[in-house]
Structures
1.
Amino acid sequence: MTQRDDVLGRSVRSAAPYALVDRVRDALAASHGARRVQLFLADYGFTVLTPYDPLPGKEQPLSLYNSPEGRAFGSQEPREQQVRHGDAVDHHLPVTVRGERIGILSVRLPGDRSTPEAVDDLTHVADLLGHEILVAERDTDAYQRARRISRLTLAAEMQWQLLPGRACGAEEFAIGAQLEPAYAIHGDNFDWAADAEQLTLAVTNGMGEGIQASLLSNLAVNALRNARRSGLDIAGQAALADQAIYEQHRGASHVSTLLMRFELATGRVEVVDAGSPQLWRRRGRTVERVPLEAQLPLGMFEESHYEAQEFHVLPGDRLFMVSDGVYEAVSPEGEAYGERALARAINSTGLLPAATVPRAVLRALAEFRKADTTDDALAVCLDWYGRPDADSPTAPPLLPSDPGPTPPARD
């Protein structure tokens, strides 16, 4: 880190939580002659980029797909745009933290100062800003408020606050996830946590609608976190959450859950299937549902017993988890979405990074439905890279008691 970088970092970190962009704007004006600095944030539905502090006449959101800023967001690469009738250049820099795509920092520089070295500096500033935004959100609503193009329901507010993020990346894996309808979700949720040895991933679906479903999912996710942080294995985590939900609701409400633990060094996976979320795998060009032994949803009966099954993932595998709001969707004509359509959607997004796959699949689902719906839909995508020295089988069975895969869907 250069002395200038260190000075900039201290300056931004000392800014008020809501004034990070102002501090960056002042710093870049002084160091690079920046004529304009603006932050755009991806909205909850991943459809537009909203300006954090809109300039006069620039209040409208930008398309995430048909604007220079949106293309920089999608490619996750800096993009340049020559300003009309002038010598200035707009630089659009992705603001991303450990795989979590936050938005775009747009900086206008004089043409003679738009050098490769300047782009490197701006990229560093965008990375710094992203980290500081995540810290600042503890103390201000400014950034979350700017992400909204409409009002969230109270149930959706509770669900989004519960999430770890919408993407995460490490040497061994990359994860992307999305909830729909983004501004009115109620029962579906996901959670993950990783350390040096393992990744734990949970997909939950609380029964019911509105606040009832959101409260139920909140109880389940926090019970699973409590058990995980206590050091319990995933069968123990499921059992503890099951008891917590049953104690509260006495079997009247339950939570469908898919709970997975990945051993980072080997690709060995333990899984508890306690309800409706489905697990799919794309290996090469073949997409197939991973058959799991169904166990009781959490909270249905007192002191249910859970057992983990095992399988292995290989480098290049893509796992896909969906709620029943995806595979049970129905078109206005009464046609069921079904497993074949889901397999086609997974295959068609094979070249996209994990962070963007769930949104792409849910967009295809929305086109199939052809109408607004309040049904929850959740999609989580995990790409497995493994470790170079991983010790795992070359062609492992899906599961020890595998009854055989469903017919694969191919390109």
2.
Amino acid sequence: MRRFLHQPGGRLASIFAALFFVLSAVIGSYVYSACQKASADYTTLISDIVLAQQATPQLRDALEEGSRLPSSEQVEYIDYFISRSKQHLNNIKGSIERHRYLLSDVEYLNHHFSELNNRLSDLHQQAQKAQQRPELIDPLQRAAMEIGGAQSWLYNQLLDDVRAISIQQRLIMQRLSIAVSVLLVLMVSAAITLCLAVIYLHRQRNVMHQLMLTDELTGLYNRRHLVNIASAALTQAQRDHGSLSLMLLDLDHFKNINDTYGHPTGDEVLRQVSKQLRKLSRPSDTLARIGGEEFCLLMPNTNTHDALQVADRLRREIEANTLSGIDLLANPTISIGVTTCHGGSLTFEQLYSFADKALYQAKALGRNRAESLLPPAEPTPYKGPHTYAHTFIGEPMDS
């Protein structure tokens, strides 16, 4: 996981994941709030408002009927409906407070609720006084009628507001559905786009990494990668007390091919020879192009005798195979220099120096042959001359 986060694509994916979760939390909170507001049930509140509206004409009727009753009964009758009105008012106020999404929409009515509650309390006190003073009954009736009108206006206004909010609920649900659909499409599109971008960046990174490790013309490993592989192979050979052979291969008279047939033909010769060498190499070996027409083959767990056998097989195969689509007077040949170290006792530069001297010796002895040169402290694994291959081409050596 830590390695993934250190990669550019991993960091980008992590940033997107964090943004995705933050955006999801914000959208989720908005959707939850909108759903709560849209799904609020105002049935109880509407019922309370309707009941309160019915109490207003009842109070008016009570005042008219009360005028035909004795004073004491008339006051008690009015006081009963005053209590009913206050009860309805408190019920409606409580229902509004339970709907927190409704409070802001009807906040402008708070003053009317407080004023009506105070007027009902004052009316109740006047009713108490009217029981002892009959002359106060007429003012009591007029005040009760005014309060009834205020109640009627307040409840009608509140009912209109609740109905308007109910209509808004339907609109909110429609808009919410559209918004969620659009956001979902955008998020999916963003996720797909980011995934494609991460894949593209990953491929580009692999391509750049491959370009750093390989030779552009032949597709073989380059010198930089060969040095890294050789360092690891030398460490492994030192740990296992094994042998490590290094082979330098050089195309003979390659300058003549470029001068005679042109550089494009020379490049094609290099490509086809590289392809043959790669096909003939063992999976455990590392083949690299380290110069213009010079190649290197790193062979772990291989002694000098076996390395020379491999070298002779490569030399013979290159000489025998005709290149496709190239009309040369003769098949190209290679000269090879081989060296071996045991137990990882040398550095890559030292190995390369011995192999280069062996290659120079193969060139000096007529080309198209393999020569070996061992470090002074290295034992010779077999008896006989170092030269393994015979000379097939007797042309003079290039300068």
3.
Amino acid sequence: MNLTTEQLAKYLDHTNLQPNATQRDIEQTCMEAIKYNTASVCVNAHWIHLVQKLLAGSSVKPIAVVGFPLGATTTSAKVFEAKEAITAGAQEIDMVINIGELVGGNSQFVESDIKAVAEEVHRENKLLKVIIETSFLNREQIVTACQLAVAAGADYVKTSTGFSSSGAKVEDVALMRQTVGKDLGVKASGGIHSRKEALAMIEAGASRLGVSATVKILTEE
């Protein structure tokens, strides 16, 4: 697959979710995103108010994570977190599912957890991405997670937080795309460090990539 640097940049959610990121670090992330015209900047919700001000006037969107990185907070907490982030300027929300409930077979809870956040996000006409954390899941569980996200009204399914044992894998992205079809977005995230890896994810079916190595990927020869 051949994409220009400008085309590839629009697939990228330029991400800084490090717990020790300072205001200066977040400002640098935003400057890089504007310079390369990425799809978005993805940060922890604390920084969204700053990010939306820094990105004002650009086409780069502010994104906040919810229930991050474990997904084990209560549904009401996730809904509140999403609402606060949107009020502060988030245009998209990336939420983590309750991984333990999925692995334990409690599909009804997982769907209701996603649905509650989706309803809050869509009330404000924003997008919801659902992080399923593929490193904990087998193929059957990945399929189930994707099906539950579709049923709950999510806009995207996303591979990983980047905080688990492994990140996005090409075969998982392909399986997720096969499961959700053409209508839902698929975001590959975690462990993508080169242009070659980025293009492989897109070729497998990813419509968005979550990366912190954005500058390296876009400046590779």
4.
Amino acid sequence: MILLLLGVLALAVGGCVCVVWAERGGPRWVRIVAALTRGAGELLSTAQKSRRRGLNGDADGD
């Protein structure tokens, strides 16, 4: 389990490094990884917002 968490942490840190590097004009593969990282972040953010709205909607209905 610890190895899995370390792997996820390494991917997250690597993605953040690629985002910064891409902003400074890195190679094409870095820009692709950065775009994927940003997309994943947006997807998670959207999912979290809709989840919060769902939880708030359930509380209002009680």
